[in-house]
Amino acid sequence: MPRRRTPVALAVAWCLGTLPVSSLQAQSSAPPAASKDSTAPTAPTAPGTATVTEPTGLRIANTLSWPVGGSKEAEQLPIHFEADRLEGSPDDVMKATGDVRLTRGDLIMRADQVTHRQADNSAQAEGHVRVMRRGDVFTGPSLNLKLDSLEGEFTSPIYRFARTDAGGQAARIEFLGPNRLRAVDATYSSCTSENTAEPDWVLETGSVLLDQETAEGVARNAVVRFKGVPILAAPVLSFPLNDARKSGLLPPSFDYDSKNGFEYSQPYYLNIAPERDATLTPTLSTRRGLGLDAEYRYLAPRDAGTVKASVLPNDRVAQRTRGLLDVQHQGNSEDGSSTRLTSYDVRIRRVSDDDYWKDFPRTLNSNITLTPRLLGSQLAVERQVNARAWGLGGNQATLYGKVQNWQSLKDLDTTSDVSAQLVSPYQREPQLGLRARSASESGLVWALTTEFNRFTNADSTRVSGNRAHALGQVERRFGSTAWYLTPRLSLNAANYTLDNNAALGTLKRHYTRSIPTASVEGGLVFERDSQWFGKGYVQTLEPRVQYVRTPYRDQSGIPLFDSAARDFNSYSIYSENAFTGVDRVSDANLVSVGVMTRLLDPVTAQEAMRLGVVQKVQFSDQRVTPNNGAPITQRLSDLLLVGSTSVLPRTWLDTTVQYSAQNNRVERSTTSVRVNAGPWRNVALSHLFSRDSSEQIDFSWQVPLSGRTPRLDGDGRVAKAVQTECRGSWYSVGKVSYSMVDKRISSSVLGFEYDGGCWIGRIVADQSAIGTTNSTRILFQLELIGLSRLGTSALKTLSTNVGGYRPLRDESSTLIPGASSDFHAYDD
């Protein structure tokens, strides 16, 4: 689990360089608040389970340590002196003067004069004292230290750290023993020393006491000032000096929403146990009142999960209690054999009312992956089995079960179009099945899926019932790298028992059908060397043909539990069935013919261009149609044309077109072009068209408006010490989606960034259409380079909505990147 340090106090500890090497290994923070604008992270799966993406967190990638003391191994290293002159006796007093250089391991200290007294084994360095370690530099007029007890004082030290290119100064540092020290009147800032006036931002603290024995630090009177104005302050802060987490406040976030007014959120992290933590986030909305967001996370050897909840006890606008619940749990169990693994997944998502998706759309969009108006809950279990022991001869077999239901949020606005109402999908209560697949040495491959489903629906006017089905397939592939031929036989068999209620109407209660399908698919690959745009490529020509034969079966009496017409694309045009799901199998006597040509780099095999065209030819009418409509008599399907290229420098073009030769017109198309002229210089334009349905233009960009952009090092990261050259630069970034049908902007994100050298300011306007109304949110963020970001929503919104967006600084440039988190594996 993550390691939590109080943000401001941690920066004090870092800026003094007092943490030992072992205490600043890469670590991360507590989870973020489940705010209404952020994508809350999920805990990673325990060992042996499916991988769950981990979010970024409060990570400290490198180590900084005070140059004196440290590990026992470091203390055994010899001390080397170099100086212009050495005076005195080694048994009494030794004085080194003139460009004194002391080295011990990776520590280097320089001074005008160093005096060593053998009686108390003390050292006194005076005059231009300069201490360097791992790129970090400390300077001051004098340093006194007893080498045995490690007691002493460093007067007026000035420090600068290589990783964050930031530093500060203190009135003095008091060494109180091998494990304790105190820094008095310490500061920290990344603003350059060329600024003779007060730095744009600075962290100040009255005193910091660090105790390695108790692994705790205490900072008093800590204040962060920006342009001379205090923006964060705490009279007393305590924080850990090792890998332990600690409860405490996280950086706040604030924004303005046209529906909810000004919103302020202040997360508080709770370190419950090594394998459990929580974040509580009180949120104040000027329009809706006081709310609470909460997230609880847990991790076990084979289980992991999160519980997120939001509650608004008294919504001033709706005059009622509003809330959201999102529960996720994943895990597995083994019986000692890797081939017998049981995994399970639980997901519960519910909101308080139908208007929740309108009033809090970004909360749902950050937690729901399907649609904010359709919330799915499920309990799923899978068990891998040994198919050979069952006589199936397969090497892959899985038993599975699921219970799945939905909460569909209606549009209660009486002025809304009836077509905008959401149709709730069928619930599976339950779904039980077996999947098996095997391949013989001869190349014969078979697959089998058997399943039982109980379908119900929240809409009592829709048919409900049971379905048992089996899907079988056997195929054999012949060929080489230049050609292939794959004959295939398939069977779709199903039995239906429908409920005897008013929704049944004239349908029969019992229905059984079996539908076979035979197909054969083949293709060729031709290659030749060619020259395009003055560069050599390998050009391919790849014809592909597929024939499908499926007999007609009357299926008009079967309800559509999970079937729908397939979308027209490069995958579905070669599909044997024109429908998804099980309930419909299209009759077919057709051939799909296509050809594609590609340009490949002869060295890397990277694709530089792709052009293709595909069309279906029907030899007989298709009688099974969506919603039992009239047969499809058209012999030639629409043409599907695809193309993409990256031949032009820094330019990418993609297009897909559905063209009706019968009507001599384009039915649907998607075209996009993206130009990346360099870091922080990219634009993208796309056009989406669907006849009689929608037409939309999307335009996104990130471009500098004035000033210089940061330099990059050899690894493509932002170079150090770029703040002077970047100071005063302005950037524009955003995305606009315009509906040609509605003749209005359907959604937009417009942001401006100002690079102040040692700080970055962001302001972002996020507008979206919610039903028949618009919702606008204004986001603010202040990034103090080398310390932290205050407000996380602006950067997250830009990264989510603007393709190719790149922050002006790398994550490692912040000491405290933000209030997100990583879990680490918990081992019992």
Automatic annotation (TrEMBL):
The organism of origin for this protein: Aquabacterium lacunae
Entry similarity comment: Belongs to the LptD family.
The protein's name: LPS-assembly protein LptD
Keyword line: Cell outer membrane, Membrane, Signal
Annotated Pfam families: LptD (PF04453)
GO-annotated cellular components: cell outer membrane; transporter complex
Residues covered by the LptD C-terminal domain: 321-697
Assembly and binders: Component of the lipopolysaccharide transport and assembly complex. Interacts with LptE and LptA.
Signal peptide (residue range): 1-26
HAMAP family (UniProt xref): LPS_assembly_LptD (MF_01411)
Predominant localisation class: membrane
